[in-house]
TrEMBL record:
SUPFAM superfamilies: P-loop containing nucleoside triphosphate hydrolases (SSF52540)
Family annotation (Gene3D superfamilies): P-loop containing nucleotide triphosphate hydrolases
Designated name of the protein: Branched-chain amino acid transport system ATP-binding protein
Organism of derivation: Azospirillum rugosum
InterPro entries: AAA+_ATPase, ABC_AA/LPS_Transport, ABC_transporter-like_ATP-bd, ABC_transporter-like_CS, BCA_ABC_TP_C, P-loop_NTPase
Pfam families noted in UniProt: ABC_tran, BCA_ABC_TP_C
Highest rank taxon of the organism: Bacteria
Amino acid sequence: MHVQRIQPQPTPVPPPDFASATDTAERILVVEGVGKRFGGLVALSDVSLSVGRGSITGVIGPNGSGKSTLFNIIAGTLRPDRGRVFLNGHDTTRASPAQICRNGVGRTFQISRLFGEMTVLENLVAVAHGASDAEAVERALGLLDFLEITGLRDKWGTELSYGQRKLVEIARALMLRPTVMLLDEPFAGINPRLQNRIVDHLEALRQRGLTLFFIDHEMRIVLEICDTIHVLAQGRVIAEGDAAAIRSDPKVQDAYF
Ligand SMILES: Nc1ncnc2c1ncn2[C@@H]1O[C@H](COP(=O)(O)OP(=O)(O)OP(=O)(O)O)[C@@H](O)[C@H]1O
């Protein structure tokens, strides 16, 4: 008689550590346990944080605390030694900057990367991969109008003031219709009037569904506009929460104020 053998049941697979990263309705960006060294210097140590979809989220921290390193890892221009990054539910830890860009990430830089020998309009059109010239021009003009800088369209990159460059950088990053924007010190070194204009533009972009994740030292603005703030010190997240929580956190007071 044939006796049917009872096959051992496969051991249930525990949910992966990063199961939460698939929670893409809520969290557009998840950084899990990221570490990065430069030689003997630990720039980031076991950093975990997430960015809510449609939020304005900030990263603050003293000079050298690892903020730019974190952004470079998210944008794919640096590889972490350990840990993982998820964007829109995809593991992008090893993806190239171009793939990450295609996955919906736009970026502005602390030091402007506009082409000086092109006009503002040409700077925007130059990055519109995949669009026809006519579409790219139409989109660029719409963004210049949205940011109220149509008057700059024919100026050379080299003619722009520092503040104007910040606005044009934002317009250029928007050309590829990102779902999340990484902004590296968008408010640094510009006057309060322009800072307030940029605040208004970022709020308007958020209302259109964009997620904004930025680094800045301008505490007034960070506390005013961020839903969530992550505080880095010596490569670690030492606090996170809304403005009230950050203001009253003694660790933040010690490290930052
Ligand atoms: N390519 C690199 N090679 C060596 N060390 C680096 C490199 N990039 C960053 N570091 C070091 O890593 C640490 C973190 O630097 P990072 O630029 O991420 O800090 P930050 O918080 O962005 O600082 P800041 O506010 O001054 O821009 C610093 O000690 C810095 O000197």
